[in-house]
Amino acid sequence: MGHTSSVAAISRRKLPDLPLPIWMALISLAIGIAGGMNAPELVGVFNTGFGLALGEFALILLPSFVLAAAMEGQALSLDGRIAVLASPVAGAGMICPDTAFASLSPIAGQRKLDVAFGAYTGFKLLYPAGPLIVATGLGIANDALVLTGLLLVPPVWLSGLLWRKFLERSGSTAARRPNRPLDVNGLVTLLPFGLLGSLLAFGALPGVSAWPLAGFLCDPKGALLAASIFALAQLKAAKRRECLDRAVRRTGGLLLLIGCASAFGAMLTEVLPVAAFLPAATGTAGLLGLFLLSAVFKLLQGSSMATFAAVAPVAAPAVAELGLPGTAAVFAICLGSFIAILPNDSFYWIVRNSCFTEGRDRSIVTLTVGSVLQALTGLFCLLVLMRVGLI
């Protein structure tokens, strides 16, 4: 018995339990040393990679997390059907499916799983969440990202809703509850998202970018900042500092992860032929490679946000070298990150505890199969859009 325990203890010590940013930093340095870099070269490449687009990410993440923290502090009062319709917008606007689901599920009644799949879809495919974060990491700026996300959301979300409907008919979900009475006043809480969408739409008008302030506010980063300030203004003054502190803590940790991932990508590009890790093709095969790369990252470490942050800088050199279409590459990564909602994902536990009070053993199958169906539906639609020349 004692011998077995000691062997288990030794085996656990073989691989240190380190945070992902530390692993990436250490592996980056190891790659550089193995590639024969001297100290100045090693530090120079790491420094250049670490700082790549970090300022842009700060302008995206900090206001996004301020918006999310402000929304966490407000009680939503909506009809269950409106909560379902709002879930993709909330998932994208809050830059977090966990927060969007936690905010909307209490008033979703029988439609909690619909809200879960909606929030998950919006976070992955709508501005200013997944597409903007991935596009920034890939160094891609394209107005088609907004339209492509809007085209992909309906079929991807619908596949999740149909899966929930199938489960309901087979008796695998919790008992139905009546919807809450309609309370349109609850929509006031979602006004920051309305402001965000309005500014982005206004920015598409010709000549707006010629005015410095209007051009910035109608850019995704400026629109996010304006929406976060508006959401902050809706809070009581005593809660604003707490909201800002939470946003700063979340942003700081993610910026470290993004910096280390970017340094890892830069080091890998300097030492190894990165394009060799993806199929040497500019079409379907290359996109499938990005899809699978993103899926592997998601399965290994669970967090969707960390997947976006880590995959994009690593894949960016290969995307450029292979000449993959930028918009399609962004959404191939976003769709790969749908796979899968497992216990190493915080979203799994939030949805499980809310939707599976009975029969929790079904939660892994329900959420994993649903997310895989969404991913495959989205990938098929993405390839169709590329085939017909819309992206």
Automatic annotation (TrEMBL):
Which Pfam families does the protein's record reference? GntP_permease
Q: Which GO terms describe its cellular component?
A: plasma membrane
**UniProt GO molecular function:** gluconate transmembrane transporter activity
For this protein, the record's InterPro entries field holds: Glcn_transporter
In terms of domain of life, where is this protein from? Answer: Bacteria
Q: Which UniProt keywords apply?
A: Membrane, Transmembrane, Transmembrane helix
Membrane-traversing stretches = 20-37, 49-70, 82-104, 116-138, 144-163, 184-205, 211-235, 247-268, 274-293, 305-324, 330-351, 363-386
Write down what this protein is called: Permease
Write the lineage as a comma-separated list.
Answer: Bacteria, Pseudomonadati, Pseudomonadota, Alphaproteobacteria, Rhodospirillales
